[in-house]
Amino acid sequence: MSTTLAPPLDTALLGADTTLSSRSIDRFARAHDASHYLLIPDAVLTPVSAVGVARAFAAVRAAGRTLTFRSGGTSLSGQAVSGDILVDTRSSFRNIRVEDEGRIVSVEPGATVRQVNTRLARHRRKLGPDPASEIACTIGGVIANNSSGMACGVTENSYRTVESLLLVLPSGTILDTGAPDALDQLQTAEPEIADGLIALRERLLDSPDDVDLVRQQFSMKNTMGYGLNALLDFDDPVRILEHLVIGSEGTLAFVAEARFRTIVIRPQVATGLLVFQTLADAMTALPALAEHGFAGQGLATIELMDAASLRVAQGLSDVPAAIAAIDVHDHAALLVEVHASGVDELMTASDAALGEFAALPLAVAPVLTTDAAERAALWTVRKGLYTAVAGARPSGTTALLEDIVVPVDRLLTTCEQLIELFATHGYEGSVIFGHAKDGNVHFLLNERFDDESSVARYRRFTADLVDLVLAQGGSLKAEHGTGRIMAPFVRRQYGDFLTDIMWDIKRLIDPDGILNPGVVLSDDADSYLHDLKRVPTVESEVDRCVECGYCEPTCPSKDITLTPRQRIVLRRDMAWAEEQGDEALLEDLRSDYDYEGVQTCAVDGMCAVACPVDINTGDLVRRLRAEEASKIEDGIWDVAAKNWGAVTGVGGVALTVADALPAPLVKGVTHLGRAVLGAETMPLYDAGLPRGGSKAPKPNAPVDARAVFFGACIGTMFGPEGDGHGSREALSALLDRAGIPVVIPHDAGGLCCGTPWKSKGHLSGYDRMTRRVLASLWEASRGGELPVVCDAASCTEGLHVMLSKSLAEYPEYAGLRIEDATTYVAREVLPRLAVAQKLESIAVHPTCSTTALGATGALTALASAVADEVYIPEGWGCCAFAGDRGMLHPELTESATAVESAEVSAADAQRDGFDAFVSANRTCEIGMTRATGKPYRHVIEVLEELTRP
Predict the structure, then answer these.
(1) How distant is the alpha carbon of residue 897 from its chain centre?
(2) Exposed/middle/buried for 386, CB within 10 Å: 0-12, 13-18, 19+?
(3) Local structure of residue 919 (DSSP, 8 states)
(4) What burial letters (b/e) apply to 597-626, b meaning 16+ CB within 10 Å?
(5) What is the DSSP secondary structure assignment for residue 432, as one 8-state letter?
(6) For the residues 761-788, what does the mean pLDDT come to?
(7) Collapsed DSSP state (helix, strand, coil) of residue 318
(8) Considering the entire predicted model, what is its pTM?
(9) Considering only CA atoms, which of 780, 772, 839, 835 is closest in space to residue 802?
(10) Closest C-alpha among 187, 98, 193, 79 to residue 143
(11) Cα–Cα distance between 237 and 196 in angstroms, integer?
(12) H or E, element range at 404
């Protein structure tokens, strides 16, 4: 396979601002999305503005090429992959502008739904579309697919809530549909489009039967073909064009900005699970539940789970008792929610709903709960289905998550026949779930596309599925877009007359066919069977990856090298190249992967928090680092583990000496060392690093001790910010002040959470440290009687990981309880203290470790105890300092903190300066200090200072 672009685009036409890359690693990394299709682009373009996109259109047209837009890559139907030119619209185009107290929000296509809703939350408003992939899907995809979700139905989706769009048409015309003179602009710049859309509207209106069909089809969720309802709903060509683009999957225009009308958040929520004896009972109850109002509020959400789903749910670790106790035969369940604006309104609506539920033939007594933990457990069942089925699929298979919609009164027949299709075609373990109140269900099945018999089975199943859905008056795609998977079946669903209108729309707006060919419309009956994704087996840590992309927005290296998904898919691509004997491609990918895939991964675990199949890509990276580590280097780190107290002491002294010398001199020495020893061995010093830290606390074992104090060794290596005393000393003082005696383990200075070894892949040293630390903590905690409290969140997480990974070999330590200082102090110490005078404002940097530990709430509680205003940047994320990663690769931390740093600087200026900047981990504090120029300290240090007698 060629590893270079041929022929190249004219860079003069593209302009200086648009990046063009034909590197193999860029093309292959961005080729994969959440669908089961795979095409490798010849080049990746990254424009930064609407004008840049218009120039890209001209360059692509001049070269006789085509292009496809790619943003979040969460689409499931193949609409964001290309074998020609791929246009990355996520790296730029991330601006969000909130207007009119949140009633309007203008968003560029690279921002995620979650990022937008985070900005709107302070105004108690949100976007109408509520896709389940909101953590990763971007506004570009939401518009392109006319996304909906669990609650928005057809009344609050993109089609209904878009106020205006900033469009770049294939000709290069840039049109703001919200401009007062938008119609004049369109008629002047694109008279054929303006006149042609009106002619198409009149053509449709002249066919009453087809008008009825369009109205029937779009009374449901429907993303098949183009949204011909726009020809009926509007008579202004600007509005028609605007709404045809919504749901057009990047085949008609580029949306450079979307302006939405937002909806009010109803914050009071009650959730319940209605378990029925049979699917028929559930479906019989559905129309009344969907249509009936309870005290003026209907059920906001009605999610279906069939019997197979319930069986899968029973295998989940935290399945609610109501499901665990069922002897599942033909059961079905509806997960329901009542939303309200206030507590009284919710109580009234919930009581009315429970009265209605009492008359239903339920297998389990109905309950509506407002408890956050209980609600989360119920949603874990629903959302855990994908995790359980996709995560357990055989290696080499692809998880297909499909969706259909039928009129609600046809849903029972459809589901029953769909279950029969699974059996007929041998798809075992397939589950049905989805948005029952909309007649929209999803089903999940596993298929492999590396042999002809599997592809033939998939062909037969698809043919039967098409027959089933269309016989019920439904649509073959409700939410996921037509894409490549259903493009050949548009004519089957709509007939010749309406399909011909769709083709005429495409030719009218994109006469040269440069935008996303083969998507939405296709004359090739077998095109849905082309370019099916290959999934070669790779490392066990990541082999179950479904390439959904949920991990990407939180990844600290996403803007500088690769994301977790890209690290995984490149392993698959390298495995495939090796299978094919393509040595040139394999070497090309490998040569760039070490830096981009391995060395710039922060191994912070944030990807695992977001991953639906529980993958921590850092586990893969640590394995690769271990495989690359030389025996000499591994031996050195093993020796370091034996003498860790001395090592940290020497490191601290070195930093203190460096702090006293001119920074350029020390930096020059480390530059020389990196040139000789390598950038992965010698950290880069800069003036932002602190002096060395203090000595480890002395061992102590009072009889009346109530906890074990595990002082993090980074307190020895890195000194505190400014004139502070550091988190170890601050925590010790707070414990004394609160009258809580603690045990200090023997050889406290020689103990470590093991992260320096684990993150670098030095397994011998890690095993040695694990044995020493667990034995020491077991003794100090008196056999698990006392909790172990650590003053650095990343070290607390490291101890948790060390313990969990060791229990199989050392089950005797199962009783150890390890807790971060933030949660322990918030619960046990803070009530015993008095803050004499609060600060006015404080800026908080949550960390990846407080997130993983569930300690961010405690961090903010402590901040609230010392300041009247607690500011958390909306764009906060992992700082990527990651132990020594920020010193080995400072460019990684600079990239990872750019958004948060800008927010902090702006907020600081608005307030004439925050009174303090806090976090929960020394290396994170160093990273944020380096990024912002502000003095970040541990929140416990500030608490200690403000509670002194």
Answers:
(1) 18
(2) buried
(3) E
(4) bbbbbbbbbbbbbbbbbebbbbbbbbbbbb
(5) E
(6) 93
(7) coil
(8) 0.91
(9) 772
(10) 79
(11) 9
(12) strand 398-405
